[in-house]
Protein 1
Amino acid sequence: MSTFNTFTSTAFPLAVENIDTDQIIPARFLKATDREGFGENLFRDWRYHKDGSENTDFVLNHQQYSGSILVAGHNFGCGSSREHAAWALKDFGFNVIISSFYADIFKGNALNNHVLPIQVAPEYLNSLLQAIQKNPSTEIEVNLEAQTVSFGTHNATFDIDPYKKMCLQKGYDDIDFLVSKLSKIEAFEQQHIY
Amino acid sequence: MKKTLFDKVWDSHVVDSIPNGPQILYIDKHLIHEVTSPQAFNELKRRNIPVFRPKQIVATADHNTPTENQHLPIKDALSRNQLEKLQQNCDEHNIELYALGHEYNGIVHVMAPELGITQPGMTLVCGDSHTSTHGAFGAIAFGIGTSQVAQVFASQSLLLKKPKKMRITVNGSLRKNVLSKDVILYIISKLGTDSGTEHFIEFAGEVFENMSMEGRMTVCNMSIEMGARGGMIAPDETTFAYVAGRKFAPKGADFDTKIAHWKTLKTDASAEFDIEYTFDASDITPMITFGTNPGMGIQLTENIPTGKDVNLEKSLEYMNFEKGASLLGQKVNYVFIGSCTNSRIEDFRVVADYVKGKQKASNINAWLVPGSQLVAKQIKEEGLDEIFEASGFKLRQPGCSACLAMNDDKIPDGEYCVSTSNRNFEGRQGQGSRTLLASPLVAAATAIAGKIVDITIPVLEEV
């Protein structure tokens, strides 16, 4: 896993609330048996018309927007547990999502794939969305160590579980940790009721 | 300290706690299926680590399986490949698999409770958000991502932060024609799809105490649609009677010991919750959704909300509905009775009871899809299949089917479907499909009438 700490990027504004995992990656693309290649179908039914042509109204198709940050509406990632949603976002090139609220399973999936879900206040989110829409070259600075996000003169702090922060910074993951605890898990099993 | 049901089950599964960090939670049962497991098996292979406790894993094929001609090879090459991968992985790691055609095959959240795999006080996980279903037994059950599936393969444990606790109490008696699906659709419509996030919900009160296990499973199944990690209901005599005698249920003296333990699994008086809500059963009438998330629900006789809201407008545009309109009389061409929410025997009994002696409307394509082979068998044993046939319905073979349309059962572009499944998201039942979530009874009434009709019982007729 790659590590990350601070970086600066422009962003795509997707001001829709309750974006569910079926929109992020529709079920018909879940038939793959590896993790790669989901980016081409990210937001498939919003990005493309039914005849396969590009939907020029959709923000990911707007030439003026670019970058590795997605700024999205409240309750992002609700619905399914499919980790394919996090894989699709990462495969497309997003390292950071900024929203005012996340669904739990999506948030965990994103972190496990080293995509950082930053939660900010609704007012901050609104001003960020407006700033990007007004000026698509708006740069957003993310500092994981300091847990801050900023654009122009607007600064905000965000919360992250200290353990997850360490995983992101060191490129570490839960399997490594759990496997190191197997003897403790075996001892637990000896006195466990089931 | 006074403990809630959730505390009791959670705390008894904590292997270790990391200071200022997550806890290691031991998982009793890991359920897997073809869609979210292949990448986890690959991850183990890549790291060259074995499956730690294969006997605590049970696999089934459900998401991709066809509902017709299950004896023939699956036509779709990608679906076939995913099912073959599951078979190979289970063979390689000595995991029990109920493959297509097996007498125990079925939707993971239907077959596990039926076989007695799901028991009170357990922790269960699955790479599927509707794992919350199993909480109906007083278990902690929740959906996980594929990275976590790999973690459980490697250690039979997960690293987690303990969620917060919510209690939703519904007291009183339900009106006639109001089913468990209406109760949960009502609760979500009142609280919203993000209301349960970061919480485990305990459903309490007379309504849930009087509910069958099937009804409790429907409620807990949809707790994820409030954003909750899971829902739970304290185990009681209804639970014990359901578990008793099932294939993997404890037997004899072991069962008695377990029951003694299960009886302790209830929230202590004065135990505290982070948040509580209370509803009155008499306020609930049959429900239907009009929008593109499960929180966009109204009572059948209500009108679609008005008001300026971009999300409401976006969803009404997709559904081609008008603000302030009634859904009564709305023509529908599809009815789907199935999914891990409503494909249990009780659901088919409700449908059979309503459609007996009536004829399906000619414009309706009705898909009746049992949740498992055992449900399909029971439908035949009880003669419900004959009632369906006489009414013009066709019973299909078990699987997830048109709930998420990974198989051939897709609602065509622009068509309306009254569905007993759990999600009305854009394109969920097929690209461009328009889903209205409802109870099996509302779905059955729609299939007979060919349109949405009022099955609410006026208050004046009540005794």
Note: Residues 77-93 of chain B form the longest helix (17 residues).
Protein 2
Amino acid sequence: MAEIKKATGLIDWLDQRLAVNKFIKVMMTEYWIPKNINFLWAMGVVLMVLFMVLIVSGIFLLMYYKPDIKLAFDSVNYTIMQEVEYGWLWRHIHGVSASVIFLVIYIHMFTGIYYGSYKKGREIIWLTGMALFGMFSAEAFSGYMLPWGQMSYWAAQVITNLFGGIPFIGEALVVWIRGDFLVADATLTRFFMLHVLLLPLVILLLIAVHFYSLRIPHVNNQEAEELDFDVEAKKYLDGKKVESKVVPFWPVFLSKDFFVVGVALTIFFYLVCFHFDFAMDPINFEPANNMKTPAHIYPEWYFLWSYEVLRGFFFDIGGIAAMDIGLAAFGFANVIFMLFPFLDRDTDHVAPAHKRPLFFVWFWVLLVDMIVLTVYGKLPPTGANAWVGFGATIVFISLFIVLPIITKMEAKCNNGGCK
Amino acid sequence: MRELKILAVVAFFTAVVYWGVEPFAHSQMHPHVAPADFAFKDLGATEKKGDAAKGAETFLSAGCIGCHGVAVANMPAPMDNASASATFGVTPPDLSSAGAIYDKNYLAALIKDPTKALKVEHKFNETRPHPMIQFFGLGGDLDQEVADIVAYLQSIAPTTLDDKKVYADACQRCHDMKYDKLMSTTDKTALMAYMGTLPPDLSIMIRSKGRDYLTTFINNPQKQLAGTSMPRVGLSEKAQNQVVAYMEKVGDRKKAEREDLGYKLIGYMVLFTLLAYAWKVKIWKEVH
């Protein structure tokens, strides 16, 4: 045991027992961040803030929510929205941040793709990030179902049904997931458990791993410049702050983050109080009715692109049912981003997209294609809409097939193998 | 400068996604319908000027009180709600306020041909007659007699009604308003059989349908939802606005609080952002 001396103050008392000074250095004041980054790098902190907002508002909602199909709808729409003081505020905060967090996740992801932050040494950051995306998706879906509204009920019916497409075990799996033959009380109760306990725990754990995985390879920067962090940090500590290419996380990096978070929360509270409807499907203000199907069933906006990939193949090809091809494509869309660091064959060369001509084109085509998929994922899949969806799905899949090829070509060019 | 360019790119693509999944998709899923018609043009307008005193006699002779109560004229409903539900499928309305909340032309057309005015021809026909019997007249000029009855109803109706009362008289026979503890006056089993489906609770209908949709839907349900069992009720523009205002009061009762708090929250965050910016400038001055 370390020698414990009489403490000179509270900090010292804690320092002797918990090494708080060391901890603050490692985590904050001597955690080095490249200076050459833009506001897109603040998205991680924005996500953290939004996630905290979700946890706090969720705890408040939890005090009055009833996970029972007879009570759930009214506990949300009457008790929380009308009876509880500021219950509406907590609900709107929870609903809006659940939607906005996905926008920020997508910006965060596309930033990583654009600047090559998933490559060479940073693969684990990308993998844990994608695992987080998957967990957030499950978290959002399980939470969406809880108010037991018409669209949330039918979305649950459709999504759980997807597992029925898995060969051999499909049907049994659907019943196992639902806990019943239909989406019913058992389903609601288990999704409630997933939403408030198991998934948040997994997410917290993954966030910790995601942060830790940044420590060794360090965060990327705008020019993907390789920095010698020890040398740069020494310059900074020696007082050559302007010359040094790094800044400490606290207070320098965070001072900029505070500003970005301030802007984000200003917009956020505008949405919460004046424009919450974008995050709350009006159909969910009708109670779930298993006898009445809504005219159009669609998921929340952040799942639309993969939903459109699912239904993009609307005709049988070569004796394989459209539904099965769709499911395969849907499975592909949901795992392919995970493999990103391994599909990019230009492994040694970390550079922003504008310094990689082919990849630059690839990036913008992907972005536009995903927006097309998102918009058409909500439109009724009839007539020309179905064909646009099909085309965009083909483009999406093709993009990931050509990715290794074009990155390989670029890798050759970097080694002087092309003119 | 570069950050502003990046911000513009992010804002642009966010706006495109928003436009695509909100206004654009909704315009595709809910095609635009003609605006509400409070003149009820399809029913035709009568030129006749009604006489309330004559109308009172005609009203009694026509047998209206066989089914309807008129509380303001000391004529109670002939049946209690349970028996009326069992007999007609739905409780007939008390007509005390009918002259005030329903349109004049609509009332005249309703008395002459209920299924047409209510737009429920798809449900009621000769083999399944509508519970309200068509008025064929007492032998004189039918249009004049009808105009007299309407004039009578208008003469006894109160001049002002609060929003909740309009809702109760116009909608409560079929619909619940659970969150304001108003339940339908018709027995649920009878109502289910009569309508073919249980009319929805209206507590938060304002949030699921919105003001615009309700304006055209209440005025003419078939226009928004062809084949629905909801009849056209024939509310005047003023009365319909009162119903919608009441629905908003119940379904979105925190609206005023929400907007008031909204300005404060945004104001607070703007202040926070400005201070954060000042702090950032101060700190980054040393490192740039």
Note: The radius of gyration of chain B is 26 Å.
